[in-house]
Specification:
Layout: E1 2-11, E2 14-24, E3 29-33, H1 40-47, E4 55-60, H2 70-77, E5 80-83, H3 95-105, H4 111-124, H5 141-152, E6 159-163, H6 171-188, E7 191-195, H7 199-205, E8 208-213, E9 216-221, H8 223-226, H9 232-239, H10 241-252
Parallel strand pairs: 3-7, 3-8, 5-6, 6-7
Antiparallel strand pairs: 1-2, 1-4, 8-9
Helix pairs in contact: 3-4, 3-5, 4-5, 6-7, 7-10, 9-10
The structure holds adenosine-5'-triphosphate.
């Protein structure tokens, strides 16, 4: 679904990515981790076409977004949804208007139809009834994330990009959000590119994990394989106190088949 080859990103004299390669497979939840400033968000922005890389190739659905005409690009963009770190909702629109926006702009639905469908998407994302008419400033952090997720799902995307979706949520809300992502992936057949620092999320829902370090994807694979990488950052991340706690919690949790 996504192919990144030999990606280089520089800001002035600072090199963030150097010869970075990454593949994202259809139907998987790929967790992207790395220390602060290793370029996870810059990678996401490069893939969704919000940033022109210094060099290298990025293909989404086999297409190089930046080489497409605006019309062709808009057709490809409709096939993915993005949940940005802070939700990025329009503060002057209420929640259902926020979700209806892409349906009006990209799917050219009439406003009443878009708002009705927006209500369905909000329910899908687990927003309680009655929240539709609230403004972003009137919602809790967890509700903002769900509303932003509903907007990312508005156009029935095939790929969902999530930038730190559980950051700032309490542990119970974060676990519920993880389960929601897993359920949506299974129900809708989504491919998920997930930037996170959250070890519980990695253990609970990710099929593969990619570690950004030393300006590239240092290692990518199933979590138990990645955790064996001798790199010092990987070792302290997965085998430090928080990593051990997440692993133990995961081992104690019932497997999905048992639930
Ligand atoms: N528009 C920009 N101009 C200049 N430097 C930038 C820009 N965007 C990102 N950077 C730099 O690129 C580096 C990587 O940033 P990025 O936000 O991708 O890191 P990250 O891995 O997502 O970090 P965090 O985990 O803290 O969110 C940082 O040093 C940042 O300062």
């Amino acid at each position: 679904m996504i192919q990144v080859r030999d990606l280089v990103n520089r800001f002035g004299t600072q090199t963030v990515h150097e010869h970075l390669d990454l593949d994202v497979r259809r139907g998987e939840i790929l967790g992207v981790v790395g220390g602060s400033g290793t370029g996870k968000s810059v990678l996401l922005r490069s893939i969704v076409g919000l940033r022109r890389p210094t060099s290298g190739q990025v293909h989404v659905f086999g297409q190089d977004l930046l080489s497409l005409s605006p019309k062709q690009r808009s057709l490809v963009e409709r096939r993915f949804g993005v949940l940005f770190q802070n939700g990025a909702l329009f503060s002057s629109l209420n929640i259902v208007e926020n979700v209806a926006m892409p349906l009006i702009e990209h799917a050219h639905l009439a406003r009443p139809d878009a708002q009705q469908l927006g209500g369905v998407k909000l329910a899908l994302a687990g927003l309680p009834a009655g929240a539709e008419s609230k403004y972003p400033s009137e919602l809790s952090g967890g509700m903002v994330k769900r509303a932003a997720l509903a907007r990312a799902l508005a156009l029935d995307p095939e790929i969902l990009f999530l930038d730190e979706p559980t950051a700032g949520l309490d542990p119970i809300s974060a676990a519920a959000f993880d389960q929601l992502i897993l359920t949506l992936r299974d129900a809708l057949g989504l491919t998920v590119f997930l930037v996170t620092h959250d070890l519980d999320t990695l253990y609970t829902i990710c099929d593969r994990v990619a570690v950004l370090s030393q300006k590239k994807v240092l290692v990518v694979g199933p979590l138990d394989e990645v955790a064996q990488c001798p790199d010092p950052w990987v070792q302290s991340y997965f085998h430090g106190p928080r990593g051990r706690a997440a692993e133990e919690a995961h081992e104690r949790a019932p497997s999905p088949e048992v639930k």
